[in-house]
Amino acid sequence: MGVSTSSPEKGISVVTVDFPPVNALPVRGWFELAEAVRAAGRDQDVRCVVLAAEGRGFNAGVDIKEIQSVGRSALLGANHGCAEAFAAVYECEVPVVAAVRGFCLGGGIGLVGNADAIVASDDATFGLPELDRGALGAATHLARLVPQHLMRALYYTSRTATADELYAHGSVWRVVPRDELPGAALGLAREVAAKDGRLLRLAKAALNGIDPVDVRRSYRFEQGFTFEANLSGVADEVRDTFGKAGTAQRERRDPSEGTRLKGPE
User: Fold this and answer.
1) How confident is the model at residue 255 (pLDDT cuts 50, 70, 90)?
2) What is the mean pLDDT of residues 87-115?
3) CA–CA separation, 42 vs 26, rounded Å?
4) CB of 249 within 8 A of CB of 241?
């Protein structure tokens, strides 16, 4: 359990997240993930990093129960940890391929939105249930996956989009059956890693340099409103309903159920 790194092939490093039951990361998990990705990128023998996950889904965001039990120190830790993990993916010295299975929610969007490419299983769903969690953030990264008006609708409603829908928008490279996901992600990483490593590092820096949005600053701006929501008390009111029976918010569902973009409630 935790964050592990493996090297299945020359030039490829796989960073795998495993925090059962749903990969809702505790504070330490976000920092461990950030360091693992940065370490992989610093390795001059690595030309591509694959970000993967074990278990039922790719990522269910922050560990809300940890925040409820520990309090605001955990909230601050989660905010800083998320910022570092998202930045580590974006600033990794080599391209990062995200291999997404099942649900990709909240902080998961921050990770894949900052990745260089996404390969997804056909059961993958993507969304930001932040308003149901008493939080704000990662619209910066969702906006890198879908057009602006769709991003806003998904954000306001806490609905999710499928891998096929993101493929139609061009943000997912391939959609494959779940059992084929590891091989498909490695296949793309292998193609990337076949390039000259020195040029790949220059290319990553160049592409980040021409990005129209400073993703680190943009996300930190969003987080300021999360702090405001906490200071006003509204965040605690919403967050305290998390996991309680009889509530109507979607976030209480099993993350694997999802809430698809299309179709009635």
Assistant:
1) low
2) 98
3) 25
4) yes
For residue 240, pLDDT over 90 is answered with no
Answer whether 148's CB lies under 8 Å from 127's CB.
Answer: no
What is the token pair recorded at 149?
């008006």
Around Cβ 244, how many Cβ atoms within 10 Å? Answer: 9
Alpha-carbon dihedral 245, 246, 249, 255, rounded to 10 degrees: 40
A 10 A CB-CB count for 213 gives 12
pTM attached to this predicted model: 0.91
Query: Maximum distance among all alpha carbons in the chain?
Result: 56
Distance between CA atoms of 151 and 52, rounded to whole angstroms?
Answer: 24
How many angstroms separate the CA atoms of 144 and 112, rounded?
A: 9
**Cis-peptide into 21, omega within 30 deg:** yes
With pLDDT > 90 as the criterion, what percentage of the chain qualifies?
78
